[in-house]
Amino acid sequence: MKILIIGAAGMVGAKLTKRLADEGQLNGEAITAIHGFDVVEASMPSSGSISFAASAGDIADQATVEKLVADKPDVIFHLAAIVSGEAEVEFDKGYAINMDGTRYLLEAIRAQGDDYCPRLVFTSSIAVFGAPFPDKIDDDFFLTPLTSYGAQKAIGELLLADYSRKGFVDGVGIRLPTITVRPGKPNKAASGFFSGIIREPLAGQEAILPVSTDVRHWVASPAAAVGFLMHAATMDTAMLGARRNLTMPGLSITVGEMIEALKRVAGEKTASLIRHEPDEAIIRIVDGWPRNFDASRAEEVGFKADADFDSIIRAHIADEEQAGRLAKAG
User: Fold this and answer.
1) Between 3.40.50.720, 3.40.50.1820, 2.60.40.10, 3.40.50.2000, what CATH number should domain 2-177+220-250 receive?
2) E strand or H helix at 173, and its extent?
């Protein structure tokens, strides 16, 4: 089995690559090769039984994308995207990467012919939904994104469904919650503060909170995100029918509840490093985001969520300690 990961240098892509390498198989079939592609070369693991390759380029370049699928990978994970805040500011860049790049990928797969039909896992976003919202959004709620990023992901969902209907790909689109706690440095995502208010205080650094503590959001851990991807790559897509895109399970939680969880896990002193500094641009974006979901359709076909936010924080601490970025507690 050959696997292509587009967006392999990102946090989720790196964790997915490691899990695939550790397990060495997917759906009972031995993995023979993993190719990681991104705008910069990903750091790939080593394994005696798997051939690893890393390359860098621009997914908005059609020739580059055609080369990626020339050897007909069996499973393709499409994680690459310009994140929400950057897509809102860099309008042309957002559409080039998030829309054109996705279509180039689908067209490159279609051009292979010869009954080539790989499993394509596409990471969409809850940003495809726009206000006004019901108390809980289910999979029958219409897509009316209120950001360029959300519009680009909604277009990707439609393309994935149509190319699957035509038999060019066997697609699964997973609308990810906001992934938190993200390790490393902040990115340009408008949602970045959801990780920052946990990650920075745990590292002894001040964190800026740009929205009020009563903001409610839908979140999941990095480990849950990798679990979603793995399940999407191996599930029986006959269960999905023509509706190839699903909202992933998550936790509906307020910023205030996140901070209370941080206090329980790491103490008041750590939580006191959070400083409220309103940012009107981020407030406007976040105000248009959904807050709660009924993800029963995804749960019914086997996707699993985190238990609680305290567990997410503890898992982040354990990962950071293992990586040597935090001193071990106690």
Assistant:
1) 3.40.50.720
2) strand 170-176
Query: In Å, how far are 32, 56, 62, 89, 311 from 1, measured between CA atoms?
Result: 5, 22, 25, 39, 34
Tokens 């992901």, residue located: 153
Angle between helices 193-202 and 309-322 (to 10 degrees): 60
The answer to pTM > 0.85 is yes
CATH architecture for residues 190-214+252-292+307-322: Alpha-Beta Complex (3.90)
What's the distance, Cα to Cα, between the start and end of the chain in Å?
44
Asked if 72 and 90 count as a contact pair (C-beta separation under 8 A), the reply is no
* Active site annotation includes 149: yes
Domain boundaries, the chain: 2-177+220-250, 190-214+252-292+307-322
- Cα Dmax for the chain: 62
pLDDT digit string, tens, across residues 76-132: 999 999 988 889 899 999 999 999 999 999 999 999 998 999 999 999 999 899 889
Active-site hit among 95, 104, 149, 163 = 149
* Alpha-carbon distances of 53 from 42, 46, 88, 116, 324, rounded to whole Å: 9, 10, 33, 22, 26
Distance CA 314, CA 316 (A): 5
Question: Tokens for 182?
Answer: 């993200």
